[in-house]
Amino acid sequence: MALERALAVRLRFGRLLRAWYRAHHRDLPWRKTRDPYRILVSELMLQQTPVSRVMLRYGEFLERFPTLDALARARPARVMEAWAGLGYYARARNLHRLARTVAESGAPATLPGDAAALRSLPGVGAYTAGAVASFAFEQREALVDTNVARVVRRVFGPELDVTRGGDRRRIWEVARALLPRTGRATYVHNQALMELGALVCTARVRHCGRCPVRSVCATYEADRP
DNA sequence: AATACGGGGTT
DNA sequence: AACCCAGTATT
User: Fold this and answer.
1) Taking the C1' atom of B7, which residue's CA lies nearest?
2) How far apart are alpha carbons A45 and A54 in whole angstroms?
3) On chain B, which bases lie within 7 A of the protein's CB atoms?
4) CA to C1' distance (Å), from A47 to C5
């Protein structure tokens, strides 16, 4: 049901979504770089952590550890210091381990550019692999985080229940079906999907009045008076 | 499939 | 006092 709906309107949906993003997106630090390392750090920090809190630590962390190699050479205690206040400290340990692993395999240390290889790195799951592949390497890869899952469910599959494993897989399928044709457009597309969930199609309140895709939204269609 | 992992802001 | 937030690894 959700997949058929997505396939039917994917071109219109994508055009509306990306146009809205270009006009309304926030100017966030990690959107000003294509450096895979800087993108990776932002994605790891943002796991289950609000943008506002990551903003407090992101710049300073990169100042102390400007490259993957610099991070690989750092003492664990220094890395944990720089992570202080962000919580989920296993992320910092994983990032440090990742840096040292990648640094051993080549000089200078470089991240792999495809999602499957990224996925095998410590602390990098399906979401982060898709994010780094599409944001840093402009690969045509989907990504699903809490924002994307909510947007996809409301727009294409109100019947889906994210707590069910099968439905989670279905949401990934829909996200892949929605991807634009090129990797370059995928960067904007994925950013836009998350931004819509963060600014308009938010968890508690839906701001359908300023939603660019309400004309193709199943939830809006069902709830309108 | 369920749970641990942080901590601070919002409702 | 819940609920929420750019999830992942482990059981």
Assistant:
1) A87
2) 6
3) 1-2, 5-8, 11
4) 8
Tens of pLDDT, residues A131-163? 999 999 999 999 999 999 999 999 999 999 888
Topology of the domain covering A29-136: Endonuclease III; domain 1 (1.10.340)
A5-37 tens-digit pLDDT:
999 999 999 999 999 999 999 999 999 999 999
Which protein residue lies nearest to nucleotide B1, measured between its Cα and the C1' atom?
Answer: A165
Provide the CA A130 to C1' B2 distance, Å, integer.
25
Give the pair of three-digit tokens for residue A58: 């992101």
Question: What is the Cα–Cα distance from A138 to A217, expressed in whole angstroms?
Answer: 28
Provide the 8-state DSSP code for A187: H
- CATH 1.10.1670.10-classified regions of chain A: 2-27+142-223
Contacts of A14 by beta carbon, 8 Å cutoff, 6+ apart: A178, A180, A185, A189
Check: CB of residue A135 under 8 Å from CB of residue A107.
no
Question: A44: closest CA among A106, A160, A122?
Answer: A122
Nearest CA to the C1' of B4 belongs to which residue? A88
Q: Which of A4, A43, A81, A138 is catalytic?
A: A43
Which tokens belong to A86?
A: 């962000």
A198 CA to C7 C1' distance (Å):
16
Q: Is A43 a catalytic residue?
A: yes
Domain at A2-27+142-223: CATH code = 1.10.1670.10
- The alpha-carbon radius of gyration of chain A (Å, integer) is 18
